[in-house]
Amino acid sequence: MLEDRTTAAPSATAWPTAYPQGYAVVDVETTGLARDDRIISAAVYRLDARGEVEDHWYTLVNPQRDPGPVWIHGLTSEVLRDAPLFPEVAEEFAARLDGRVLVAHNAVFDWQMIAREYARAKREAPVRQRLCTIALSKALELPLPNHKLESLAAHFGVVQQRAHHALDDARVLAEAFRPSLLAAAAGGLRLPLHECRPLTEWSDAPAPRIGHQAGPGGYRSAGWRPSRKRPACPYPNPGRYEEGKRLKQGMRVAFSGDTSVERDLLEDRATEAGLHVATSLSRLTSLLVTNDPDSGTSKVVKARQFGTPVVDEAAFGQLLADVEPADATP
């Protein structure tokens, strides 16, 4: 029974004052998982401060391209042909998100897809924070066999009716999020909130999908932000960045969290300047670039442990304009 798996709701006086005042539980279905893919349907369940449903909304979106894995989401070109374009639903979508924390399962994916669509429409989504239910389930130490939505739903006794349908996925997540939120509040848990920064610069160039097998219809599956084969940095690592000095070719730079300039573009510029873009953070990392130095991401935590210098995106952009050449090899 659901009651046996959750913690009783805290009293009004015990509710954490730092918790958000409202949530927008979101699910988007897309033409694929890469940076050039598009949203084809979206659903939002609006919840109050304690996770109670206020209302819900759903729309199809014409992506103006092949719909991708129809065998997963069931949305064919014929179904989407007369659907509105994203700019035509952007205002209503924004009204559903405004002033709320965006909640999603693997929230970075949903947020990046939404941020891209708004950037294409020359608008900004009114989202400042997101909460990933995968991160929340880990923080609550829920005994799940894996981090799939179906496993989270089963834990709380939520029955899914149409998997990979945006409206039903959002409903299931909303129903599973409420007991998770109550348990977090009862335990005084700090919610794993992350900053959302709208994109001001991005690229719609197709992301490489090398090494992925083609599925039915020629669609190739790929992870979010597929790994890119960058040329090896030709310069030795000169050590850590020192405040007030220049970056030097060969320095190892890592990135964490949302950036206004799309991450791939930032990484490309760092590589072109002769820096070594690191996908993880170690004692050898010269610099961490993040706009949210107080977050609990693994890179930020390790940077604190190792004493790695940290700068924000704006400061990094200035440093990138004047990178010191590597020492000449004898």
TrEMBL record:
Signal peptide limits: none
Residues covered by region (Disordered): 204-241
GO molecular function, one term: 3'-5' exonuclease activity
GO terms under biological process: DNA replication
Domain spans labelled Exonuclease: 22-186
Record bears the keyword Nuclease: yes
Alphabetical UniProt keywords: Exonuclease, Hydrolase, Nuclease
Cellular component, GO, one term: cytosol
Pfam families listed in its UniProt record: BRCT (PF00533), RNase_T (PF00929)
Ranges in coiled-coil conformation: none
Keyword rRNA processing: no
Annotated BRCT domain residues: 245-323
Source species, domain of life: Bacteria
Protein name, per record: DEDDh family exonuclease
Species name: Streptomyces rochei (Streptomyces parvullus)
Taxon lineage: Bacteria, Bacillati, Actinomycetota, Actinomycetes, Kitasatosporales
